[in-house]
Amino acid sequence: MTVGGVIYMYPIYPNRMTRNDRSNVKVFQRICGDQGLSKVILTTTRWDICPPESGEKRKKELVDTFWRDMLAVSPGSHTKAGMAVLHNSEHSAWDLIRLVLQRRADSHLDGVILTIQKQLVDKSKIPKDTDAAQELRRKLQDLLKESGASRKEKLRVLAGEAAQLRLSFGTRIIKFLGLN
């Protein structure tokens, strides 16, 4: 099964990207792989509560620093991830969907197979052996090196993320759609 588009949403406000956010971006990159990034739209949200000057500065920081690798043309690929702003409106949401569909129509590929799909299906890897799971394990090792009261909470969140990896794709879609 190919993927025609992926929307990655990130709140433009508050004005900071935590270490956890940076780690989530790395995991996301591992899920998609270089070819999969050609179908990604990096989307900023919460513009309705963000001061405009602060939002534009933050957007530039995301483009120049945190999302730079995903927005740069990948080796062996002619396209890169796109970027969009999602305002708090139905019209803006439809504009985002149209952007995904337009990028698919403009592409020489109808869709792509994400790296995690290749690893799970073609290479018969179990979820814990995928690149995304390895990135989560690196994140866990970093958390274990930390000390302090927040450590247990971070481990709890990470355990929840790891549990998501054990669910089949179909089960996650069913849960997402609330059909369970």
What percent strand?
A: 5-15%
Number of helices, counting only DSSP H or I runs of 4 residues or more: 8
What is the total tally of β strands?
3
The major pleated sheet works out as: 3 strands, parallel
Q: What is the rounded Rg? A: 17 Å
Mean pLDDT: 84
Helix content: 55-70%
Shape: globular
SSE string: EHEHHEHHHHH
Distance between the termini: 23 Å
Secondary structure class reads mainly alpha
Strand order of the largest sheet: 1-2-3
Residue ranges: pLDDT <50 for 5 or more in a row? Answer: none
Explain the overall architecture.
This protein starts with 5 loop residues before the first strand and ends with a helix. It has a 3-stranded parallel beta sheet, covered by helices on one side. It contains 8 helices and 3 strands, in the order βαβααβααααα. Helix content is 57%, strand content 9%. It has 180 residues and is mainly alpha-helical.
What is the strand and helix layout of this fold?
Layout: E1 6-11, H1 19-36, E2 40-45, H2 52-66, H3 68-71, E3 82-85, H4 90-106, H5 115-122, H6 131-145, H7 150-166, H8 169-177
Parallel strand pairs: 1-2, 2-3
